[in-house]
Design a protein that fits this description.
Number of strands: 2
Helix content: over 70%
Shape: rod-shaped
Distance between the termini: 49 Å
Oligomer: single chain
């Protein structure tokens, strides 16, 4: 009994526990946080594209400023990327 207490109280004593469910939870949290982060970026691009629609000067394509069109295009591409990553898991 004394030896057990001595081992537990020793500074080098460590217990390693491996639980497979914790690894699955970790992977799920990482995947979910990546999708949420990508969604935040997509939302920011859409919002910025909406703000830049009201630019009065600069080149236009299809009655829309090029800057705004590029932001909407990037948001669309990131949306497809997020959808692909969601389906892939």
């Amino acid at each position: 009994m004394k030896q057990l207490i001595r081992k537990v109280n020793h500074p080098d004593f460590a217990v390693k526990i491996s639980v497979h469910e914790v690894e699955d939870l970790k992977r799920s949290v990482e995947t979910g946080s990546n999708i949420v982060f990508l969604g935040l970026i997509i939302g920011a691009l859409i919002l910025a594209g909406s703000f830049t629609l009201f630019i009065d000067h600069g080149p236009y394509i299809a009655n829309m400023p090029i800057v705004s069109g590029l932001q909407f295009l990037l948001a669309t591409l990131f949306g497809f990327l997020a959808f692909y990553n969601y389906i892939k898991k």
